[in-house]
Design brief:
It comes from Sutcliffiella rhizosphaerae. The chain is α+β, with helices and mostly antiparallel strands. It is built from five helices and eleven strands, in the order E-H-E-E-H-E-E-E-E-H-H-H-E-E-E-E. Bound molecules: biotin.
């Protein structure tokens, strides 16, 4: 993975560029990295703050031979790879919060956005967008994020080498992705659960249509969260 890298100084969104490249037929493993995004996108139509030279803003193109329903598994796999890379490069101990936020000391340092193009019942490409707050100082964040967002350097007290972090993420991703293609999701699920903080706790899950509150029971084999509401009804989200 990452053998073909498109490195940019500034883009609207690496997701957008990766979608176009995928459509043009570039090979699996192609990576788009940018120093800055002017209109970075987050989940649920939110924006993603991506200032210059401070973070890792990148999108990876995968082309697994799988049905579209398996795509959420790749998000969880990516969360595990980034968590392992952060541990390796910084020594920090991140937690994963369902579905794909990575928190350090309870504040969000990483977001993952997975989007796919599918035809009939087959994935054509999956674009995995990764946003990592690396060398931000607290005043690089907009005020409304101060209490909920953080960066690796804030938590570590020193700057982190972004190239080294990207390299480590790609190595971990490659390793997990190969394992996943050979042995399926189960080994990845175990790793994900070992880093997850939400399972067994009451959570409020945001969905496109609103919020759902209940007990996070675990994840299914497909990588879907099972949430039990107060009427003991299980929702799959
Ligand atoms: C989230 O809402 O938590 C997901 C944030 C994903 C941000 C990354 S940064 C690189 C890629 N390009 C984008 O526009 N978004 C993703």
């Amino acid at each position: 993975l990452g053998r073909q890298v498109h490195f940019k100084e500034s883009v609207t969104s690496t997701q957008k560029i990766a979608h176009q490249l995928a459509y043009d037929g570039v090979p699996e493993g192609t990576l788009v990295v940018s120093e800055e995004q002017t209109t970075g996108r987050g989940r649920l139509n939110r924006s993603w703050h991506s200032p210059k030279y401070t973070g890792v803003w990148m999108s990876l193109i995968l082309r697994p031979n799988l049905p579209p329903a398996k795509a959420p598994q790749l998000t969880l796999l990516t969360a595990v790879a980034i968590t392992q890379a952060i541990e390796e490069v910084t020594g920090l101990r991140p937690d994963i919060k369902w579905p794909n936020d990575i928190l350090i000391n309870k504040k969000k340092a990483v977001g993952i956005l997975t989007e796919m193009q599918a035809e009939a019942d087959k994935i054509n490409s999956v674009i995995i967008g990764m946003g990592i707050n690396v060398n931000h100082q607290i005043d690089h964040f907009p005020k409304e994020l101060h209490s909920i967002a953080t960066s690796l350097s804030i938590e570590l007290g020193k700057t982190v080498n972004r190239a080294e972090l990207i390299q480590s993420i790609l190595l971990h991703l490659e390793n997990l992705y190969e394992r996943y293609l050979q042995h399926g999701f189960y080994p990845i699920k175990l790793l994900w659960e070992s880093y997850a903080i939400s399972i067994g706790k009451r959570i409020i899950a945001r969905t496109i249509t609103g919020t759902l509150e209940g007990l996070a029971k675990g994840i299914t084999e497909d990588g879907i969260l099972m949430l039990e509401d107060d009427q003991n009804c299980i929702h799959y989200i």
